[in-house]
Amino acid sequence: MTPNPRQSLLLDEVRARGAMSVEALSEQFGVTLQTVRRDVKLLSDAGLLARFHGGVRPPSSTVENIAYRQRQQLNESGKLRIAKRVAKAVPHGCSLIINIGTTTEAIARELLHHKGLRVITNNLNVAAILSDNPDCEVIVAGGVVRSRDRGIVGEVTVDFIKQFKVDIGLIGISGIEADGTLRDFDYREVNVARAIIEHSREVWLAADHSKFNRPAMVELARLSQIDKLFTDAHPPAPFPALLTEAGVQLTISDS
């Protein structure tokens, strides 16, 4: 499903608070209990919320991400705003490594008019998008292709990435936890992202607001290993303090 504006706000509110009752949501949005229950059922059937007696909470799984098609649609407008800001910051004539993610794919679309780029990627969707830019050289990493999202992972991919040292490593993430860790679900994907961080002169993280306080199983890095964070809304506490302490440059692409 593609959440409507009210449902998107409902998702944001539940993620920010951790859990909410149906009655509180009804009061918050000025709609009937029946409307909230209908929204909650649709969102939970899509895997975007988990229901319990009388209320809802974010999906609690730390071992499995939501489906790729659902991630494409989730906060689509926010990802587009992030993509435009990132593309504006990327200089012409530079080298990048771009990893797996729906936000990085949105960024690739915004780079279609850049000139003189050399892009290394382990994301076949990014490669397909940027191959339409005649002034961009695209290098695709070897490895195992995940059918669900066309990401390329594995030790072969890590070894391939280690050949390079690029200007910008551009990564997405599944979750940023309140202890300052960046987390994801697939340890093979995490190993590739770690290699990208190690072999980039600057590391840029693109993450929409839903990634804050979202748990995932595998630690990828810490905020101190990131140079710039692009997001679409002001991060909740304690993230502003953590970002300042880590020396991360924050860019907010709000509406």
Give me some keywords for this one.
Arc Repressor Mutant, subunit A, 7-stranded parallel sheet, 255 residues, 2 domains, alpha/beta, 10 helices
Shape: elongated
Distance between the first and last residues' Cα: 23 Å
Number of domains in the coordinates? 2
Gyration radius from CA atoms, angstroms: 18 Å
Question: Which class best fits the helix and strand makeup?
Answer: alpha/beta
What's the average pLDDT?
Answer: 90
The major sheet is characterized as: 7 strands, parallel
Helix content: 25-40%
What is the overall number of helices? Answer: 10
Helix and strand pattern: HEHHEEHHEHEHEEEHEEEHEEEHE
From the 3D coordinates, which CATH architecture of the largest domain would you assign? 3-Layer(aba) Sandwich
Q: How would you describe this structure to a colleague?
A:
The protein has 255 residues and is an alpha/beta fold. The protein has helices spanning 5-17, 22-29, 33-45, 68-73, 76-89, 102-110, 124-130, 155-161, 187-198, 239-246, and strands at 20-21, 50-52, 55-57, 95-98, 117-121, 136-140, 144-145, 152-153, 166-171, 175-176, 181-184, 200-206, 218-222, 228-231, 249-252. The strands form four sheets. A seven-stranded parallel β-sheet has the order 6-5-4-9-12-14-15, sandwiched between helices. The mean pLDDT is 90. It has two domains: 5-60, Winged helix-like DNA-binding domain superfamily/Winged helix DNA-binding domain (Arc Repressor Mutant, subunit A, Orthogonal Bundle); 69-252, Rossmann fold (3-Layer(aba) Sandwich), CATH 3.40.50. It contains ten helices and 15 strands.
